[in-house]
Amino acid sequence: MPAGPLDVGLALMPHRRGGGDPTWRREGDGSVWRTSRTPDGPCTLRVSVKAGGVHGQAWGPGAAWALESLPALLGADDDVAGFSVEHDVLAEAVRRHPGLRIGRTGRVMEALVPAVLEQKVVGREAWRAWQWLLRRYGEPAPGPAPEGMRVVPESDVWRRIPSWHWHQAGAEAVRARTIANAAWHAAKLEAAGTTEELDRLLRALPGIGVWTSAEVRQRAFGDADAVSVGDFHLAKLVGYAFTGEKTDDPGMMRLLEPYAGHRHRATVLVWLSGVRPPARGPRMPVRDYRAF
């Protein structure tokens, strides 16, 4: 497990897609259930914190793989060397969240599909589509998982989903095509050896740009430097937290230069700081594509 403090819930939170995510559940005692499609097959993983440390249990064909990969999932490979805080807002966030770790799942398609669903829409709309697709096409979670938990489908299932089911889920044709096309290349994507190689492979696919690639690499590879450039909120938050003024993507990247190698880590700490600019402009509208 990672050396030093570890916040298990915080390490696993990036893999949760909304309050009703069928692949993620948190119990009252802080234990987290998570499903995954490993190279050995589906699995259910339960991670809890007990006296003496972190405890993992897993069920299904992929159970052994999930337990072997648990340290990396919780950030054991997260190297904070070279991360030096330059802003008071980040210093306070580090003080309040010493257990922040950026973990890696090693599973690309699990991160890619929901990231594509989140392109250019509000989270609530994307999460609704994710839940609909998982309930329809996901497998029941193995083992004693909480009721309703599902495992993401295999890549060939994503390729075969008919257009009318994408529509029922609320994903318009562009996002549906992007996911189906990526599924044809899933084996190559999953075999990528470095975050740089994965970035190149992802951005060679139609419909996948800088933002989507970063969102995938943050989760699948634990890339602490992958900044979600193009996010609707992120540049404004970083600008306001660092300078008291909103900024755009180029301005954000200039502000993040002192954190090269850890720029995603810095943006996570900005989110955790709770510092937000006054909400004066129009909000991004919710568009229900099922009505189109």
Automatic annotation (TrEMBL):
Keyword vocabulary terms for this entry: DNA damage, DNA repair
Keyword presence, DNA repair: yes
Cellular component annotations (GO), alphabetically ordered: cytoplasm; protein-DNA complex
Highest rank taxon of the organism: Bacteria
GO biological process: base-excision repair, AP site formation; DNA alkylation repair
SUPFAM superfamilies on file: DNA-glycosylase (SSF48150)
Molecular function, one GO term: DNA-3-methyladenine glycosylase activity
Name used for this protein in its record: 3-methyladenine DNA glycosylase/8-oxoguanine DNA glycosylase
